[in-house]
Amino acid sequence: MDSKELQEEFTYYNYLDNEKWKLNLPSYEKISSEVVSDLPKVSVIIANYNNAPYLEKMLDSLVNQTIGLEKLQLLFIDDKSTDTSVEIVHQYLKKYESIEIYQLTKNTGGAHGPRNVGILNARGEFLVFLDADDWYDENALQYMSGTLEKSGDDMGFFGVVQSVNGKLSLKSKAYYFDGNKIGRAIQELPSAFYEWLGPQGIMVKRSLIEDNNLHFPCQKVADDVTFFYEAMRFSKNITQGKKLTTYLNRDDNNVGLSKTINRDFMVSWLRALAYINQTFPDDISKEKFLARRLEWLVYNFGLRRDVGYKFSLKRIRDFKISIDKYLGELKFDPTIYFRTGARKTVWKYLLIEDYRGVIRFNRWHSLRHIIKKYLGIMRREENQYFYPVLNSNIPKISINMRAIAVNLVDGQVVIQIYTNGILNYFEIRNKLHPFDRNKISSKKSSLIEYKVDIPLDLDLEMYDFWVIYNGYQEQKIERIEKFISKNSL
After folding, report:
1. What is the average pLDDT value for the chain, to the nearest integer?
2. In the prediction, which pLDDT does 206 show?
3. pTM score, two decimals?
4. For residue 4, what pLDDT is reported?
5. Percentage above 90 pLDDT, the chain
6. How does pLDDT run across 167-192, given as a tens digit for each residue?
7. Where is the Glycosyltransferase 2-like domain (predicted)?
8. What confidence tens digit (pLDDT) does each residue in 83-121 have?
9. What is the pLDDT of residues 328-367, one digit of tens each?
10. pLDDT at 460 over 90
11. What number of other Cβ atoms are within 10 A of residue 185's Cβ?
């Protein structure tokens, strides 16, 4: 695609730094609590469409914030829902202060519309964007705003956990694995930081948004990541806080995500990457950002079979043609940031336009994965494990890490590590409270063995044991149950 065509798309989808995005927003009807603050500390922008089952949990987390409702502006922007969403919020509005309902007169087709309405009506010194099915820790907004006030930075990133049917797991690891940081230059951020740039756990100064005319482009996906990456570029330095602030809802009864990963999803993401690529100078931050998002697209459209764009030769060819159309020839090798050999292999096939090679590799690798997962069959070569080799013509793919408990010696658990990466440390983590995590002391005793001071009387129903490697990747320790029991002492 030539530059003129790209500019036309950027204009159509309201990417550009002009006033068009404001003019294209729908009108709305506004209802407010009896008491609202003229100068709130934090504005919470909530885009909603048919999220009635989740609203009470979300709203309860807001009205009980330790910062106090008098310091908040809660903007609930409804994208013309057809369920009882507005009625539910209205009950809270009658009972609590600081709530404002903006009911759009027509549906905008995505979160971008309501979020942009929220930006135009926000009065707080700081802004956060909360998805209507997620919720906050009760101290989140006090902690986030207080941390940014002290740091003086325009943008902060804080701890997020993912909730799947009540089971919690860490999200956005790079936001807090390094501990608390202020004034951290975005050019120094690790590539893992760019794995997650959704709205959860991020706070931004309103002045940063207004001074740079920041807004969400008019498309269903990639609008939030584009917005927050642009904010990072203008902020130049960020604050990180390691405390838990936000719960990301991924329950089974929530709207299925995999089928929304379709062709429109693919093109929208590539358009967003093209905009970032053209807007900002070539540097390490942009390189890492583009690589991480490309790796994610390679995973979804080169390896996955369970998405809304049917796996086929047509899909693979279309994916590569679309990459070329929007990004052209990259000036760097993105695979240096890819996390797995399978994704690197698919990219290599795409570069030489061997689409049938991708099909063959996908078929064999999918079978390898099943054999490994359900039969436990792997191939070991010295201190590295590989997926089962089923066809000598298909590249062998290493398993990033296996960590196996093999013995108990003098009260220490002996762990064997097989990896192509770099081990950082061992960690114990509370399953119910993933942010309750602590390093475990260890000593290397051979090329692959470590003696680890794991407490032997812990309940495995409550705790997991992990190896952290390559900076931010993690692997659970296998067979630990043979040596640990709540009744062992």
Report:
1. 93
2. 98
3. 0.93
4. 86
5. 81
6. 888 888 888 888 899 999 999 999 99
7. 43-163
8. 999 999 999 999 999 999 999 999 999 999 999 999 999
9. 999 999 999 999 999 999 999 999 999 999 999 999 988 8
10. no
11. 10
Give the pLDDT of residue 258.
57
> Are 100 and 36 a contacting pair, CB within 8 Å?
yes
Distance CA 213, CA 211 (A): 6
Q: Which domains does the chain have, with CATH numbers?
A: 17-252 (3.90.550.10), 260-386 (no CATH), 401-482 (2.60.40)
Q: Which two tokens stand for residue 470?
A: 């390559």
Report the distance separating Cα 155 and Cα 151, nearest Å: 10
In this predicted structure, the answer to whether residue 81 has a pLDDT above a threshold of 50 is yes
Q: Which two tokens stand for residue 416?
A: 């064997």
Contact at 8 Å (CB) between 342 and 396? no
- Rounded CA separation 56/251 (Å): 16
Longest C-alpha distance within the chain, in Å?
72
